[in-house]
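[Discussion] Sanity-checking designs against the backbone

I'm trying to build intuition for which residues belong where. Below is a structure token string of 680 positions. I'd appreciate it if someone posts a full sequence so I can compare it with mine line by line.
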């Protein structure tokens, strides 16, 4: 099914051909049921291939069904700028630096004074004060604001926000700047989703009220219900850098504790034959209620499905196979939303569980501990190491780093976070007593501060994190081959498997060597698309110079610039050989890059000048015609902050002179090799 989903996303297979193939495959499967058992046994391989192909095409059909743009009533098919839209708020508003944001579903639109039903989702942004920040989900908004496409910044190595939005079913975004641009339509009917959000808000209120400290309360909210809006960004990064971000990403570990508590509470009912089904219904209801309150992320839903299967097996007095349970839960989730296959939480949670199932016992059996406390510590080490084996390649591919001290961090943090989680549940249960709640909140606040301090201390170690790792999908697959061959060789004592594993690892190292060799001779020119404005950068080999780096915020460097360091295997350099930079002119290896802004008046240039690249700020004073008459330009770059009228003038002037134009408002960052054909 996974292979069919991937093919449906990336390979263009004719729809008619798929349906014909399904019909052709079903016919021999029906015939198989009619032939004698002997022939069925002899031809079981062919039957297996036919079944595999059917499931493959089922995966293909799932992803086609999930593509909102392929639906007949998708709003984008007949949408026109200025149309009135009816939107339903799907999520609570999340605070941003200069706005609030939520996901909204397009219910319908008015065309020729007639209301037409529609489908699709958009990111809904509102300026502070234009919309009530606590506007309940499930309520409606009428607006005529234009839906704009979701765009990427285009910065090299940056996050593909457009693809992420597409996989969330979001195909556009709109901005509301004041209250006159919206009409609020409240829905008073009962909504289960709205009730879940209300319960969640009650839990968050209790945690904020009784746990002292903004940082501590924010982490408590993330730990219990996965709410990260109040979580300190630097603290979240510290947890990620030290390899324990799973502690604050509500997942199977959290649900396992809830499952354990429920089992303890319902044990008297579970052992009695007449009441065991009552115990099952209560337990499953509580598990799913917690999963929904925690946000219903792929990792927590995966755990809920697995524990539901385990509880069902126990109630029916039947033993379940963990591999079948894992596969069944994955299949159910992908049937619900095939785009979860690209979700990092989905991938890492399944890999972690599979890794523990495969490798925990072999690792644990390596060491015998006589004393109970030592045995418990070794079990924790074995689980941590086992989970890391299969998650490491994907984690490096996605996040470009490896937490070297993950074992030393998990040893104290995992038990401590488990105690804190149980304590938070106790705090909620003690809500009837202010004195008891305050006392519990004080203890929890102290424990959270202790856990945070452990994280900060380990993060500051000089060898705590190995970052800027850049591997391709081919290397990821080869690393999994290395892991599989090594595990088989050690468990089955196969020298051949170990030799092949070592050879495969050498191939991975060889690919890395080739990539580094290519990086050492690269030359690129980049104009970054940043919140503070556009900044230029030149890449020379393994060095990267950045214009006015000191003027950028640490957040902008971390989120927008550093991904390019990883992508091109470079490090910051204060200057480069043959580089000379002034306010309006950058020269490098024979290339002239001119900056047109308010400080430079082209009218004062008496003799015609030459610029390989002309970057035009929105503040440029003189007209485009004068600039291009005075300066011979090979490549024109237009800043995204330029007005629409000036942008059109510059494009028209460049078109007359057949000058290539890169509009950063439409195409994002500019990124090109430095060679004779700079516009490639």
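Best answer:
Here's mine. Compare freely.
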């Amino acid at each position: 099914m996974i292979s069919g989903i991937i093919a449906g996303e990336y390979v263009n297979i004719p729809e008619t051909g798929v349906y014909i193939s399904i019909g052709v495959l079903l016919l021999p499967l029906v015939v198989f049921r009619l032939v004698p058992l002997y022939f069925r046994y002899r031809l079981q391989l062919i039957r297996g291939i036919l079944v595999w192909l059917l499931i493959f095409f089922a995966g293909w059909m799932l992803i086609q069904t999930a593509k909102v743009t392929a639906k007949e009533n998708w709003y984008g098919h007949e949408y026109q700028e200025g149309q009135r839209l009816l939107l339903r708020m799907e999520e609570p508003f999340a605070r941003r630096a200069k706005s609030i944001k939520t996901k909204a579903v397009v219910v319908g639109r008015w065309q020729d004074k007639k209301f037409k039903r529609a489908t699709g989702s958009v990111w809904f942004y509102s300026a502070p004060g234009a919309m009530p920040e606590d506007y309940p989900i499930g309520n409606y908004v009428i607006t005529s604001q234009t839906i704009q496409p979701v765009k990427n910044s285009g910065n090299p190595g940056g996050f593909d926000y457009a693809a992420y939005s597409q996989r969330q079913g979001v195909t556009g975004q709109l901005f509301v700047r004041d209250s006159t641009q919206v009409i609020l339509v409240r829905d008073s009917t009962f909504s289960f989703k709205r009730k879940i959000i209300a319960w969640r808000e009650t839990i968050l209120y209790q945690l904020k009220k009784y746990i002292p400290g903004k940082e501590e309360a924010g982490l408590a909210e993330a730990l219990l219900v996965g709410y990260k809006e109040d979580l300190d960004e630097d603290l979240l990064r510290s947890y990620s850098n030290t390899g324990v971000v799973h502690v604050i990403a509500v997942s199977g570990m959290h649900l396992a504790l809830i499952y354990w508590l429920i089992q303890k509470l319902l044990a008297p009912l579970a052992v009695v034959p007449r009441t065991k089904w009552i115990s099952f219904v209560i337990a499953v209801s509580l598990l799913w209620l917690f999963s929904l309150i925690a946000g219903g992320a792929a990792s927590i839903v995966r755990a809920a499905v697995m524990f539901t299967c385990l509880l069902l097996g126990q109630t029916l007095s039947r033993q379940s196979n963990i591999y079948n349970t894992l596969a069944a839960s994955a299949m159910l989730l992908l049937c619900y939303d095939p785009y979860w296959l690209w979700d990092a939480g989905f991938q890492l949670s399944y890999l972690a569980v599979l890794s523990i199932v495969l490798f925990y016992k072999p690792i644990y059996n390596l060491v015998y501990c006589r004393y109970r406390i030592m045995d418990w510590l070794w079990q924790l080490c074995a689980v941590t190491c086992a989970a890391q084996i299969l998650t490491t390649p994907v984690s490096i591919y996605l996040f470009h780093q490896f937490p070297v001290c993950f074992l030393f961090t998990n040893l104290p943090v995992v038990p401590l976070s488990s105690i804190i989680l149980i304590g938070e549940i106790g705090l909620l249960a003690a809500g009837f007593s202010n004195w008891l709640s305050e006392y519990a909140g004080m203890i929890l606040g102290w424990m959270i501060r202790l856990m945070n301090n452990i994280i900060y201390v380990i993060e500051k170690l000089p060898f705590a994190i190995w970052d800027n790792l850049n591997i391709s999908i081919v290397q990821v697959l080869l690393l999994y081959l290395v892991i599989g061959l090594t595990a088989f060789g050690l468990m089955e004592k196969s020298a051949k498997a170990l030799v092949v594993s070592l050879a495969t690892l050498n191939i991975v190292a060889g690919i890395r060597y080739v990539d580094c060799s290519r990086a050492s001779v690269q030359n690129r020119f980049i104009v970054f698309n940043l919140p503070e404005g556009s900044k230029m950068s030149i890449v020379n080999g393994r060095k990267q110079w950045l214009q006015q780096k000191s003027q950028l915020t640490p957040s902008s460097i971390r989120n927008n610039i550093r991904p390019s360091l990883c992508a091109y295997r470079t490090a910051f350099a204060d200057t480069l050989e043959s580089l000379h930079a002034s306010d309006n002119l950058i020269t490098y290896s024979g290339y002239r890059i001119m900056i047109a802004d308010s400080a430079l008046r082209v009218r004062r240039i008496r003799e015609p000048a030459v610029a390989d690249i002309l970057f035009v700020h929105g503040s440029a004073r003189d007209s485009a015609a004068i600039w291009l008459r005075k300066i011979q330009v090979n490549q024109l770059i237009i800043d995204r902050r330029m007005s629409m009228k000036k942008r059109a003038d510059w494009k028209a002037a460049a078109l007359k002179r057949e000058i290539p134009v890169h509009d950063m408002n439409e195409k994002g960052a500019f990124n090109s090799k430095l060679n004779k054909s700079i516009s490639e």
